[in-house]
């Protein structure tokens, strides 16, 4: 914030390149030291003087011709510290936010750049796992952040809807399907059928042959097999949709792995033409030893294509048919090697863009109460149950806090689900996350409920104060002058930079941490200031700060995929 003005101010007196000046500018750690600082160490050579002397001399010159946004410049050691003129900045920032409203922090710079985000990508007939939740919510937040920065975003659900396991499921369904009522909790029943197949096949190995034949029938498009497969997809999706609705996430495309079945031969052909394909023990592979990676398997010796082949076909489809400029994959860190291989093969095929525009956005594992949730080892924890429990806990808290709330159910859902989402997104995405019930739902901690609650508090203040934005005059701000509100205003002013950083790093936690800071500083302000007391003019100014804070918090909640409510 105001970096540009500081560059303007400084470039009259020093001969460094403006970009370098801008890069050198720092924000002092101690707020009392000033709002912006210019370190003079790099100038020592040019001026042939010690940095502290340079800073002192510059201070004198600069103070004689200060731009109106600056209050003063002070030399401290080798630094030249600048203090902004508070009234001017406060009026400026508040007027900006008021004008931009919900578009505050948005940018048009990337207009037209198409980004395909591969996210969620759950597997048919298997539980919606916790790593899929992470992919869904991190992907959704990145999509929102990218959209706000002007990118043209496509959210793609790359469903796991193909593979030999469907042969097993078909056989299981034929044999025991009548014992399972698939009209509700279908995914659990399909999973049970799958587990049963594996158990029974241990006793009767012939079942495995049957399953192979069933998958072959599916590949050949035989009607009965295809009908069953479609049914599994339909009932699984109907259930996933419920979870997506609860999470408030929508997709632009559902393009499962099976969508690429008829596009695989062309990929293989292209690889062969380009001399990349080799036969190894009957399988078709692309050798990647020159890049210190194991080979990328394209086709197994039995003729089946693989996960990687489908990802190659999908990447080329997204690029060539869907017109994507950038391909982003929000998938767990355990698939790092897979994506390195796929991206390298794309590059070797002559797709120069692949090196820069294919991006794997990995994330760590999520634990619930310190436990890994895994569908293996029979320890199945369903995401749906976790979400339902979170809503229940939230309901209990709201019942206690605000028993007269008219839309308790809606609020409990938004707060419970929000707690899980925020707990996920507030950590650097590459770190593992532990979800602890009491912590995530604590209304005073660094949590989703805390942010949502602060938003509601701000809304209620504006209602009580009958805030009228038209009455605010940014040219004469007198009632916002304490240190706490100064920190708050500066923080709000920095939001566009926060968005840039979140975009660059593909990391929603940048936004989550920022909004926690905003809430904490606001609450400090709220606890020390009588916002609705005093002259009407001052009240309007203070409420304008409240309104700007509310705008920014609401925006962050939206970006992260949480709902905001006027009352909690
Ligand atoms: N369905 C896969 C899984 O559950 C994730 C797919 C990720 N996306 C991709 N294009 N490979 O592990």
TrEMBL record:
Keywords carried by this UniProt record: Aminoacyl-tRNA synthetase, ATP-binding, Cytoplasm, Ligase, Nucleotide-binding, Protein biosynthesis
Catalysed transformations (reactions): tRNA(Arg) + L-arginine + ATP = L-arginyl-tRNA(Arg) + AMP + diphosphate
EC number: 6.1.1.19
Sequence similarity: Belongs to the class-I aminoacyl-tRNA synthetase family.
Record note on quaternary structure: Monomer.
Keyword Aminoacyl-tRNA synthetase carried by entry: yes
UniProt name for this protein: Arginine--tRNA ligase
Residue ranges constituting the DALR anticodon binding domain according to the UniProt record: 451-568
Pfam families assigned to the protein according to its UniProt record, in alphabetical order: Arg_tRNA_synt_N (PF03485), DALR_1 (PF05746), tRNA-synt_1d (PF00750)
UniProt keyword Aminoacyl-tRNA synthetase present: yes
Taxonomic source organism: Effusibacillus consociatus
Chief location: cytoplasm
Source domain of life: Bacteria
GO MF annotation list: arginine-tRNA ligase activity
């Amino acid at each position: 914030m105001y970096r540009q003005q500081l560059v303007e101010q400084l470039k009259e007196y020093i001969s460094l390149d403006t970009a370098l000046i801008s890069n050198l500018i720092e924000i002092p750690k101690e707020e009392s030291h000033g709002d912006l600082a210019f370190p003079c160490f790099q100038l020592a050579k040019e001026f042939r003087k010690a940095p502290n002397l340079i800073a002192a001399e510059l201070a004198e010159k600069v103070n004689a011709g200060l731009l109106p946004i600056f209050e003063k410049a002070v030399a401290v050691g080798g630094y030249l510290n600048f203090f902004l003129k508070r009234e001017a900045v406060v009026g400026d920032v508040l007027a900006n936010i008021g004008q931009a409203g919900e578009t505050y922090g948005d940018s048009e710079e990337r207009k037209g750049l198409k980004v395909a985000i591969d996210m969620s990508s759950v597997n048919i007939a298997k539980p919606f796992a916790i790593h899929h939740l992470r992919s869904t919510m991190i992907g959704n937040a990145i999509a929102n952040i990218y959209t706000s920065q002007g990118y043209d975003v496509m959210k793609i659900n790359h469903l796991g809807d193909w593979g030999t396991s469907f042969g097993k499921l078909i056989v299981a369904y034929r044999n025991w399907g009548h014992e399972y009522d698939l009209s509700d909790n279908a995914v659990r029943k399909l999973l049970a059928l799958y587990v049963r197949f594996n158990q029974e096949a241990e006793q009767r190995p012939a079942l495995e042959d049957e399953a192979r034949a069933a998958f072959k029938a599916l590949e050949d498009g035989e009607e009965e097999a295809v009908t069953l497969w479609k049914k599994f997809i339909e009932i699984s999706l109907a259930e996933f949709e419920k979870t997506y609705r609860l999470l408030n996430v929508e997709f632009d495309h559902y393009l499962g792995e099976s969508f690429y079945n008829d596009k695989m031969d062309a990929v293989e052909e292209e690889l062969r033409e380009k001399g990349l394909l080799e036969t190894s023990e009957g399988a078709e592979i692309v050798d990647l030893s020159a890049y210190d990676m194991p080979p990328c398997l394209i086709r197994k010796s039995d003729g089946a294509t693989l996960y990687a082949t489908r990802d190659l076909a999908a990447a080329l489809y997204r690029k060539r048919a869907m017109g994507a400029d950038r391909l982003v994959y929000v998938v767990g860190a355990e698939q790092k090697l897979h994506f390195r291989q796929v991206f390298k093969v794309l590059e070797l095929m002559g797709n120069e863009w692949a090196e820069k525009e294919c991006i794997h956005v990995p994330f760590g594992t999520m634990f619930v109460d310190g436990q890994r949730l895994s569908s293996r080892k029979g320890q199945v924890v369903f995401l749906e149950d976790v979400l339902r429990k979170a809503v229940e806990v939230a309901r209990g808290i709201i019942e206690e806090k605000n028993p007269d709330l008219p839309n308790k159910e809606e609020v409990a859902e938004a707060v419970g689900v929000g707690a899980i989402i925020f707990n996920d997104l507030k950590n650097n995405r590459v770190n593992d996350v532990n979800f602890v019930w009491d912590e995530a739902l604590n209304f005073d901690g660094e949590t989703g409920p805390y942010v949502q609650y602060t938003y509601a508090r701000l809304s209620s203040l504006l209602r009580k104060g009958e805030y009228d934005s038209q009455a605010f005059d940014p040219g004469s701000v007198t009632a916002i002058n304490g240190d706490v509100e100064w920190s708050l205003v500066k923080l709000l002013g920095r939001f566009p930079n926060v968005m840039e950083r979140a975009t660059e790093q593909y990391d929603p936690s940048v936004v989550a941490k920022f909004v926690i800071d905003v809430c904490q500083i606001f609450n400090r302000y709220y606890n020390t200031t009588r916002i609705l007391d005093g002259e009407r003019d001052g009240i309007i100014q203070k409420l304008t700060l409240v309104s700007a804070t509310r705008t920014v918090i609401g925006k962050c909640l939206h970006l992260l995929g949480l709902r905001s409510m006027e009352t909690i």
